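Subject: two folds for Thursday's group meeting

Dear M.,

Sorry for the delay on this. The cluster queue was jammed most of the week, so I only got both jobs back this morning. I'm pasting them in the order they finished. Each block is the input sequence followed by the predicted structure tokens. Could you check whether the formatting survives your parser before we put anything on slides? The first protein is the one we discussed after the seminar.
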Amino acid sequence: MKQLKAFTIIEMLVVLVLSAVVFGIAASAWLYFEKLENKINTSQSYLLAFNKFDYLIKNDVNNANEINGNETDLYFDINNQHQKIHYQFFDTSIVRNQEDISDTLNIYYTKKYQFAKKSNDLISKIDIVFKLYNDSIPKSYIKWYDNKTLLEHSDN
């Protein structure tokens, strides 16, 4: 009787088990890197929203004739452009409305803004503390008014 050269059932089972182990390691590594990519994308989108908000509000504060508001809203009257910009502060986002354009920025902040008023209704300082993971990022935006504007809005 002629014997064929072939693998035994034991050798085939060993290869099958080793293949399953390698596949399991590869699948868990794939899942790990997929979660890592999602975390990086989330933090990048948050940082993008934070930087966009920072850029927009700096521009709006610098260009505004007047800044008014209350606990949840800020209103900017922009110089020489006859336009108003409205910020709405929600728990997990800030919405900026300018004419027909609306931006929703998903930003987490731990403390809402505070007003330092130089006159009856003008806001001269906005303090916001943003939350990024376990870090707090305090930001202040200051508006310097000219004397004419201050006199127009004074109590006297």
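Second protein, same layout:
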Amino acid sequence: MAALNKSTDAEKLHIQAVELSVKILGAEHPHTIVRKSNCALIYKDLGKYKEAEELEKQVLQSRKRLLGEEHPDTLINMGNIATTYSILGKNEEAEKLEVQVLDVLTRTLGEEHPSTVHAMANLADSFSHLKKYSEAEKLQIQVHDLRKRIFGEEHLNTKSALTRLAVTQRILSNNIRAQDSDKLTSQPPSDIPSAQPAENHDSSNTKQKKIIQNWLRRVKHFFNAK
């Protein structure tokens, strides 16, 4: 309860700081943008993800205009919004942002930079949320290999990457088994004749009985006539 009260107090202080900064410095002053970003983090801590999303969008627009799309602060903000999107279930929007972030970081920092690898892992998570498990697996293999090279096998980040990869591979394996099972159960072997409905058998037997009875009557009539 005390922690919640502190978070609520922090929220009020950050909102006041943003409002004052907008009034005195302007909406796009660097200090105002930083305060908005901090306030968005407080909203996330309180589970107010819609409010966080709105502020993060404002921050992103300002940073793109002032710093450019490839500035580190802009990319960090894009990553923050992508996380918020994921929490809100907006996985396609998260994927689009994470693809952009990864592309820029790969070009500017290189594939083996820790920030690039982190962005790669985030995109793999989005692929998993969208059930794009094959794409997720490819990235997770890269992330594990890179982290093993950068941090070593025993590092927590490396172990985390291996765990995520194992989960994805298990899902893919289960999906393959399920598909094979569906094929076996949905297509009966061609050499086994399909069963006829019971009423067809009854109808056929009744007809045969009538034919035999008629033939016997004709035979009896023939002998009686003689």
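Two things I noticed about the second structure. The domain at 7-88 is CATH 1.25.40.10 (Serine Threonine Protein Phosphatase 5, Tetratricopeptide repeat). Residues 189-201 have pLDDT under 50 and may be disordered.

Cheers,
T.
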